[in-house]
């Protein structure tokens, strides 16, 4: 009887002692652990000390396409405040950081890297059927929608850009606001000319990268991932739910906390001088209301690269009563011998810029329609 009581006591004592040791060991090992980061390519999962798991969704990719989370970084980390957390996050996710290299102020995407993302890609009809990768047409009605249905987008403008370039054998294309790459892919494929592309929005960049690789066009394209405006600063993306081509930047910090691919570092058009390796060009500019700001710091660049024609979206300036940057832009165009026309080739009067059409072509007399 007494023997058995003693043995039960000993067992209990051993279990309790064991539990205490385990607890101490755990406390020692995890004393600094405030959160753990898990990640796949699209989401970051954050597990707090109290067990709450947060998911930070970065990309508008249909749920069915998302891969299962894999442990990327499960090392315990110590953070004291949410501010530190955000900073740490930012460092961790200088998202494009390891996909790009720097030239001056410019971040250039390394197109030689592999891209195993899975997108729907179709043939770009005018571009010798080179592949072009799309968004789901539900979230990108216009450009992806049109490409999925017809394999083409802005065919008339594309042929005009090509015709101008064919008259200037040394000229390259400058494609500001490349989006899914219709102009970039078309010109690099059909004319094998150098193209300087600028596209800052990560989900779009990945599609563009994929299209360029599928078409084996890496050697023609330089892809810059900084948005162009009138400042060098951190800017944030504003998205549209059904038109990814309408993604635009915002210089106000209220929208987002500036984490991951929601933010980017803007540059000036002049900064492109460091990456343009051709000195004659045709330019397309479609940057959702930032066109005038982009041209407000462009003298050095325009001195380096002689432009024969600029295709520019005028939607954001027509009908505006006063726009402080338009007069300076028009003077600059005039000084460089670039005259405004409607896409239908009708000359436009400089004083009438408020009534110009949605798209305008500035053209030098050195190239013919
Ligand atoms: C866990 O901690 C986070 C902040 O660290 C807090 O926002 C959240 O409400 C906590 N969850 C629970 C269930 O206590
Ligand atoms: C870039 O970093 C991410 C996250 O750390 C990693 O998953 C990815 O493989 C890296 N890419 C390259 C090309 O090193
Ligand atoms: C681009 O990526 C390739 C393949 O990983 C690598 O060999 C090359 O050094 C990278 N180029 C630059 C400029 O980082
Ligand atoms: C221009 O840049 C492209 C892409 O970086 C490169 O492949 C090409 O060789 C360069 N051309 C010249 C003439 O330097
Ligand atoms: C990025 O922006 C989207 C849409 O505006 C938002 O839902 C998401 O929470 C943002 N992500 C971060 C990390 O701020």
TrEMBL record:
InterPro entries: FkbM_mtfrase, SAM-dependent_MTase, SAM-dependent_MTases_sf. Residues 239-262 are annotated as: Disordered. Residues 239-253 have a biased composition (Polar residues). Keywords: Membrane, Transmembrane, Transmembrane helix. Residues 175-333 form the Methyltransferase FkbM domain. It comes from the Eukaryota. The chain crosses the membrane at residues 12-30. This is Methyltransferase FkbM domain-containing protein.
């Amino acid at each position: 009887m007494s023997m058995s009581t003693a043995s039960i006591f000993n067992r209990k004592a051993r279990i309790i002692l064991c539990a205490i040791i385990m607890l101490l060991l755990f406390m020692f090992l995890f004393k600094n652990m405030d959160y753990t980061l898990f990640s796949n390519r699209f989401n970051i999962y954050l597990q707090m000390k109290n067990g709450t798991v947060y998911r930070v969704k970065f990309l508008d990719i249909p749920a069915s396409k998302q891969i299962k989370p894999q442990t990327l970084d499960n090392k315990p980390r110590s953070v004291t405040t949410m501010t530190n957390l955000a900073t740490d996050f930012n460092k961790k996710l200088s998202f494009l950081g390891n996909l790009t290299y720097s030239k001056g102020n410019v971040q250039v995407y390394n197109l030689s890297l592999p891209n195993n993302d899975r997108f729907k890609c179709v043939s770009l009809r005018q571009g010798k059927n080179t592949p072009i990768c799309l968004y789901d047409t539900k979230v990108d009605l216009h450009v992806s929608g049109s490409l999925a249905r017809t394999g083409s987008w802005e065919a008339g403008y594309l042929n005009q850009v090509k015709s101008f370039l064919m008259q200037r054998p040394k000229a390259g294309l400058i494609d500001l606001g490349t989006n899914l790459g219709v102009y970039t892919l078309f010109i690099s494929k059909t004319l094998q000319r150098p193209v300087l592309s600028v596209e800052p929005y990560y989900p779009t960049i990945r599609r563009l990268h994929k299209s360029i690789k599928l078409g084996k066009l890496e050697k023609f394209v330089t892809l810059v991932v900084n948005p162009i405006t009138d400042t060098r600063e951190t800017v944030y993306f504003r998205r549209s739910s059904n038109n990814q081509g309408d993604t635009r930047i915002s210089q106000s910090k209220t929208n987002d906390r500036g984490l991951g691919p929601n933010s980017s570092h803007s540059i000036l058009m002049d900064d492109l001088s460091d990456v343009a390796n051709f000195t004659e060009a045709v330019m397309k500019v479609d940057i959702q209301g930032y066109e005038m700001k982009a041209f407000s710091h462009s003298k050095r660049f325009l001195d380096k690269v002689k432009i024969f024609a600029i295709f520019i979206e005028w939607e954001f300036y027509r009908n505006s009563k006063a726009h402080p940057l338009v007069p300076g832009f028009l003077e600059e165009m005039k000084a460089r011998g670039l005259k405004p026309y409607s896409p239908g080739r009708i000359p436009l009067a400089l004083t009438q810029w408020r009534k110009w059409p949605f798209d305008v072509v500035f053209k030098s007399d050195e190239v013919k329609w």
